[in-house]
User: Fold these one by one.
Assistant:
Number 1:
Amino acid sequence: MTLVRVAPPLAQDVDLSKTYDAVIVGSGAAGGMAAHVLTTRGLKVLMLEAGKKLPIEQELRSMQWPYDHPRRGDAPPGYHSLSFNEYTIRTPPYAKNSTFKHVMSYVGGWGGSDYVKNILVDEKDHPYSGTKYAWVRARALGGKTNIWGRLALRLSDYDFKGKTHDGYGDDWPIAYADLEPYYDKVDLYLGISGVKENLPHLPDSLFQRPNKLTFGEVKLRESLKKMGRVVTPYRAGVTTDGVKHNRYRSKCYGRGACDRRPGGCDIHAAFDSPTGLIYPAMDTGNLTIRTNSIAHEVLVDSNTGKARGIAFIDSATHQSYEAKAKVVIVAASTLESARLLLLSRSSQHPNGIGNSSGHVGHNFCEHVMGPGVTGLVKDLVGKPPTLDDGLPGGFYIPRFRNLKDRQPGFVRGYGFEGSGGFSIFPGNATGTPGFGAQFKKEVRDHAGAFIGMGAFGEVLARYENYVDLDPDSKDAWGVPVLRFHYQFGDNERKMCEDMVVAGREMFEAAGIEVVGTDEKILTEGWSIHELGTARMGSDPKTSVLNQFQQSHDVKNLFVVDGSSHVSASCQNPTWTIMALAWRSCEYLASEFKKGNV
Ligand SMILES: Cc1cc2nc3c(=O)[nH]c(=O)nc-3n(C[C@H](O)[C@H](O)[C@H](O)COP(=O)(O)OP(=O)(O)OC[C@H]3O[C@@H](n4cnc5c(N)ncnc54)[C@H](O)[C@@H]3O)c2cc1C
Ligand code: SF4
């Protein structure tokens, strides 16, 4: 077993009288990457993170078995996780008038709420309003990367040049060739496991050792080859061979904890921003971190209109402070970054900083999910158990719609995430009729024979899907909250109908008996892949940022998270967020040295 080095002490003296080269808001995938790139290029950086620094290994306890926990992983009484019905029947703010002391997003309800109760925000303190939306937020050093699912995919020119391909929306101001070297850098620095497939619509990464597919998954892979579709082992943002340059992470030794609860790897084989990016950045001596620091305004120099720093509130004391910097980097996650830009009104920027186009908060897009299929691999019924759950993931079926074909009902596409084989608890136990010895035999015989998959589809970027500030509602720190004006459209509904048909068709073609289909579309937000609220573009009238995620209006302001994405694609976004942030921060560092920002 590899020993993990202890994190550097975070109780640093933060000198707020000093002007830093750069201040970064947020410490997730985007903020962590900005810190890594800028500190290695010698910039003196202050990172402000709204959440706490948690003793994360004690929170995640990835080696704890259900029977070692007094409530089998459940949070103590007084905690409640929002359910699908609460999200769909009621309207936000969902925790309003709740009799529970603490309310978490639906992710807390996956089984294992005790492990995430301090990572997810308490919805009581963090309300939002408007249309229905399942908004999952993690306020802690590292943000959502502490618990993410790690499916790490690249985008292709089918995404970057989507308009050229099918006429819908807008092309990105970059092509795959611009980002490819930065994807490579992310792969090598952080580690990713997978198998090369040589697909133009899902470019390969520089992979470490892949997961092995289970029997049922191989059966599906072989069958789909005949349909020209691919089943590939889960491309996991996990180091399976180790990353020798990083002393805070161990390689994956397949302990099955990935399968047990919402993310979290306490040996940090799975990428998380603190051990992957932030601690190494601290080792350069150039990074200072202040946690518990809620940014609520980008401050502006009244003479130049340029950013001069960040106003923030200490989450524990509610005291206000200012941090000064030559460059401001917003990386608070797609929706929080839009909120911060909109909150930053001044005489120079009356609609919010960087918002002369009026596009901040608009073109909000993400992934639609819900439809899926469950099958039974009959050849496996009654076979001896195999160790299938010590894996960071199962399989992925890349997009196959609207590549060479044109679907009549919808544009763009979707991919499937799935897994088959034995898991820590036989999911079929609760649905199997009977009792006693016969019941147990029935459950055991079938336990490893199930295979399931669910689709993630591209939600089209539309100007009319947006967030703004609610004039009547504030969070626990007195900061105006976001109001959602966001709904799926006809394209998403038609695509979801197709997901069910295609899922069934693929299982049947592989000789897998379909035992269930999910046709229900989950609430907006469920994918936790929110994107697009400050999009890049070449035209300052219709976009917020240029191709380097630099504000068209304020040249020392950069927004380096998913808010910059022009379209959602159907691939999970985090690897792209980090590749883009790397590219932009390299540009920023070189412009900074030339005195151009
Ligand atoms: C359960 C789960 C599964 C997921 N699975 C996948 C997956 O398989 N593949 C994938 O690609 N993505 C996945 N994601 C999404 C992934 O986690 C995000 O894309 C990624 O973390 C985004 O990085 P970010 O830096 O933009 O935001 P975050 O990681 O959310 O970090 C933002 C940080 O900014 C801080 N912040 C917010 N507001 C302020 C403020 N005003 N002042 C100071 N700090 C602030 C927050 O506290 C947070 O720490 C998953 C997410 C979850 C929760
Ligand atoms: S399977 Fe690997 S990545 Fe997942 S929790 Fe275990 S060691 Fe970490």
Note: The longest strand covers residues 320-330.
Number 2:
Amino acid sequence: MERQLAEKTSIKDIIESCGVPHPEVDLILVDEQTVGFDHTLTDDAKVNVFPVANHGTVNAEKRLQTIVISRFVADGHLGSLTRNLRLLGFDVAYSQNANDRQLLDVMAREDRALLTRDRRLLMHAIVHYGYCPRSQNPDEQTIEIVRRFNLSELIAPFTRCLRCNAMLEEATKADVIDKLEPLTKIYYNQFRRCPGCRQIYWPGSHFAKLQKRIEKICSRARDKA
Ligand SMILES: [Zn+2]
């Protein structure tokens, strides 16, 4: 597409005026030369922009994005994605009522990548790393994130609390027995407990179903075709 500029403009602003947030841009060529986001255009130029998806060995040192990031902050609309990522063991800060300012604060303070479907928020200059999930479906979104941040090898299911994001601890049956329903006391012997919200986890009746979902997500994420 062709853009006429009234004044000297940074390449970041030009790309974003076309609707592409800068955290999704991995390589920029201006007249075949690699440049950074603060590069300004003054004369006629041909600009090529590449997404993270084709992160290759060409111009490897000029790439603008970090690939492997496993700490995230998700916006309030991504509750199901957050649960999925926590189920896979990933650290996701989430608050259903967080406003934009709070999201950006947590992102910057805790060095997290921002997950949001709000492209304008991703365009904020303070955002270094982030991703806009394309799909509306939480499982598809999870696959997108695992692919984008190359997380396949880091997946550790059932290690993190789905409710509060804390790492789970092993607990003996004696530790948790007061909190269990009568049938759970009889049938289960392996437990984990959240040191944050005290939620107790065990491989109960829906465990097999969860495991199937995890396997499906993992195999789809590895299959890049
Ligand atoms: Zn918890």
Note: The chain has a mean pLDDT of 92.
Number 3:
Amino acid sequence: MSLLVNRGTRPLPASARPGPEVLAFHRRLPGYAPTPVHDVPALAEAAGVARVLVKDESSRMGLPAFKILGASWATYRVLCDRLARLGLEGDPLWDTLPDLADMVARQLGPLRLVAATDGNHGRAVARMARLLGLSATILVPDGTAPARIAGIAAEGAEVTVVQGTYDDAVAESAALAGERDLVISDTSWPGYEDPPRRVIEGYATIFAELDEQLPALDAPPPDLVVVPLGVGALGAAAASCLRAGLEPGEGPVLVGVEPDSAACVAAAVEAGHVVEVPGPHRSIMAGLNCGMASMLALPTVAAGFEAFVTIGDDRCRDAVRSLADAGLDVGETGAAALGGLLALRVEHGSEFPVPSGAVVLLLATEGVTDPVNFERIVGRPPR
Ligand SMILES: Cc1ncc(COP(=O)(O)O)c(C=O)c1O
């Protein structure tokens, strides 16, 4: 369990915040609705702060995580680029998703979406492929929970288990890129930046929703926002949406949470460049089992996050139980934000004090994606 206080924060330009076109796109997708925000006094009491608000991503367009927001926008933009090459661009290209699927089939022919994943991103890419009538190949590291593999396969995708880490799966997915094979990755590497940039933009919808939801809850703007970090794409979205145009000392303080064994974003911020945290990464916070931060996300995260805390699986299990006791069935990765808040309060109070009057926003980024482990932790099946 460690804490890195980031001395290198700097203001982000107001232009860093994505425009309204992302939310407008998501609103046109089947099943779109804002995810709820819960005000949870029991968690505020447990954490010793004034208020804990939980943005609950356990059901997002019928999937158990927020990741479809990035996967859908990135897939759409990649397809738009292909259509633009044929001179087909400008609004409205489509009214409904079946219209778009039709146009893609007629103009572009058969295509395959390819992605590496710890579970949620790949399932979201597979869902987009199904909605658009495309095929999909999703690569997962060995050790991925059977329920998560089944979730991806249920979308009709081919699932390939890679003998190695998530980062090995990313490398294998990159090698599959081709004229008919579109890699939709949430992480970036030299020469591959456009889809992961779109993924980050896609996550802006979470924060656009919060802009309306927090005032409606009569909640003041949060003092602290706790964000789980895998490769840092969600963190980059949080920083660009919540800190753009603000001076130091204004607006919310952002803190990132990673597993003890895979703190690749903190390591990169400390080093000033992407570094590899060697695997195997076996935390129960599967979505955070990443050994290398996204080089595209890193500068924004390094500018906008004031601290990075790591937690172990026991702290995560406590957080899963506390959320479940409060009526929120959240998966291990989703519970990491609460685990991070508890670690700050219990272990790092002197280096990074969180005032007892603080209003804290937690991004609970997934629902239960491994019911067997959930039951092991909580003692009952998910509701
Ligand atoms: C549920 C969940 N939360 C958080 C994250 C972290 O997001 P990122 O990899 O963009 O940092 C992931 C990544 O897979 C995830 O699945």
Note: The first strand starts at residue 3 and ends at 5.
Number 4:
Amino acid sequence: MSSYEASKLYRIRHSAAHIMAQAMLERFPEAKIAIGPPIEEGFYYDFDLPRPITEEDLQWVENRMKEIMRGDHPFVCREATPDEARKLFKDQPYKLELINDLVNGRVDDNGNPIAEPAERITLYTQDSFTDLCRGPHVENTHDINPDAVSITFKMPAGAYWRGDENREQLTRIYGTAWETPEELQDYLHRLEEAKRRDHRLVGEKLGLFTFSPLVGKGLPLWKPKGALLRDTLERWLRQVQLDNGYQPVVTPHIGNLNLYKTSGHYPYYKDSQYAPIQIDEEEFLLKPMNCPHHIMIYKSELRSYRDLPIRYAEFGTVYRYEQSGELHGLTRVRGFTVDDAHLFVTQEQLLKEFMDAVRIIQYVFNTLGLTDFRARVGIRDPQSEKYVGNSELWDKAAGIIIQACRELNLPHVVEEGEAAFYGPKLDFIIRDTLKREWQLGTVQVDYTLPERFELEYVSEENTRERPVMIHRAPFGSMERFIGILIEHFNGAFPVWLSPVQAVMIPITDRHIEYAESVAAQLRAAGIRVEVDGSKARMGAKIATAREQNIPYMLIVGDRDAAAGTVSVRLRTDEDLGAMPLAQFIEMAKGIIESKSLALN
Ligand SMILES: [Zn+2]
Ligand SMILES: [Zn+2]
């Protein structure tokens, strides 16, 4: 059980979900109810409704929920036989399906696969409503503060029963519940802010990327400014990698199906892959992962212990299936580029190489000001069958990761079921300015793929030994990472990442010539600059530049042209006044080269 599941907030939200279902059934007596688990920062419940839900319904339901909370209704737990439960839910087909699966040991009562066959079904009742549920709940509905609860309806909130596109489409209603009204207000504020910062809106406004229905869903098209931003990140990481002994490799976008059968990506990840493509007599997959390709480069030569560690890096594009309903801007796409690297190391080198890979990730995040992060050691769920390899090696690998965290003084939690299919991993979970958590950056230890591909090196004693692999990616997916950066910075990127770093604003037409000559000097100094030679008035030009979050606005008029100065205004509205051009260049270059988060 995670600490969240053990918390009071979890019980409050779980209970609020039951109360939402009660209120919904009062509003829609014919509604069919599905499942309603607590989630991060709230809860939801899925319904099959006789008609589309309106704002008015939702307001009614929210008011009714608060009324139920104010009442004195204990949450009462009892057990029933499967037949009693079936009778109780005879008009609720989704519940009947869950009961059958519980009895057969296929799911728990949140609909998640696992669980032993259940002989008794646990039920929770409050007031007039009973649900299949193992709890935990608050003791009484009045333990929830009605002023700390709200429905947060997300339109469109469609969801498929059991996440299966071939099953019924349900209406998902989201709510949130906190201990105090202040916490609720803070959350709603963050939600509003998140909407305002939505990377899809900001990306559109800044001209970073677009989508075309003719190209396809979940396939972003990077416009020049977005591509420049992405390229700046890539070039930076490429250099950091070169400085740390990584070697670039390049591999194709497809690979023979047998390659992925050997690696185990097929069939383990079959559901997230596209159907094989037939070329001549062979079948190929769009590359779901880069690892097997890099492995074949390792395998292309006989390796000696003197060659190791070998560190191969590639910005490798992979393709994974996502349901169309799950697609979301840049953060959930169907093709994305991983800043991937695979390290082939000896057992003796493993700890140091792992720690060095972690240090690069820490450096990357710190540089970007993403300093609020935690580390999670993901180990396999011993119950699950989706993992390959023997348990001794799994334990050994997990031991190395935990030891590395200790030696790096990196606070970490260990969580079951968060491993890759071939080995345990260390994930970095970032909290952005809106306190939202994102899983970025990962380092994995892998004994399994070297085994499956029979990788070898010749040892000092002239024996054949097996290397260990480290998989790592600081950004993870370039698409998702940039989506998160856009929201984190609300489009106001650090100067070194800004697609346009300075804009020349000539006060009138007769200052355009001077503005152009200044721009040429800035470009020569490596500063990305545009000249706003439009007919708009100066105030409007400043407003446009502010909209675009351009760090420096350089306003030039007669006096500047005569004295060789620029009047510098920051996107924060701070006015630095006139300064000699050389002085501005020195300041801006200093900020850019140091990757500072400041503007001056
Ligand atoms: Zn429940
Ligand atoms: Zn890999």
Note: The mean pLDDT is 92.
